């Protein structure tokens, strides 16, 4: 049997709205994943440190503040600097459709905008982390 998927979920920057990230965290936990919620007002450095300390398979950012390009870019860059680009980065929030392709180019593997179902997020995460789990 493979181990549970380990996911760090975080609220980056000054964004103080955390209902959505808590709903997603609970759905992931209920699906059998190990979830570490870092809390509000995290810096990219804190998020990456938590991901490394927790041996995370994925990092999920929730961004509603409009700072998604800056926050995702920083997290992806810091993971690469730590030779941890195999950690799957995904996220959600208020992210304009025109920014999703650029985020993908940066290395953000999935974006879930308002209305995305937790079932879809769970399925997507299982599919996109499967290769990392096979390496263990």
TrEMBL record:
Domain of life of the native organism: Bacteria
Entries under SUPFAM superfamilies matching the protein: Cobalamin (vitamin B12)-binding domain
One term of GO molecular function: cobalamin binding
InterPro entries found in the cross-reference section: Acid_CoA_mut_C (IPR006159), Cobalamin-bd (IPR006158), Cobalamin-bd_sf (IPR036724)
One Pfam family in the UniProt entry: B12-binding
Annotated B12-binding domain residues: 4-132
Needed cofactors: adenosylcob(III)alamin
Name assigned to this protein: Methylmalonyl-CoA mutase, C-terminal domain
Lineage: Bacteria, Bacillati, Actinomycetota, Actinomycetes, Nakamurellales
């Amino acid at each position: 049997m493979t181990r549970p998927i380990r996911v760090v979920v975080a609220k980056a920057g000054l964004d103080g709205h955390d209902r959505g990230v808590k709903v997603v965290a609970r759905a992931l936990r209920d699906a059998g994943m190990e979830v570490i919620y870092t809390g509000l007002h995290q810096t990219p450095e804190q998020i990456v440190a938590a991901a490394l300390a927790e041996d995370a398979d994925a990092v999920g950012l929730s961004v509603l503040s409009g700072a998604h390009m800056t926050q995702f870019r920083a997290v992806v860059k810091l993971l690469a600097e730590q030779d941890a680009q195999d950690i799957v980065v995904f996220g959600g929030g208020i992210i304009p459709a025109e920014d999703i392709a650029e985020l993908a180019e940066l290395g953000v593997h999935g974006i879930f905008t308002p209305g995305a179902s937790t079932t879809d997020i769970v399925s997507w995460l299982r599919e996109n982390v499967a290769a990392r789990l096979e390496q263990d």
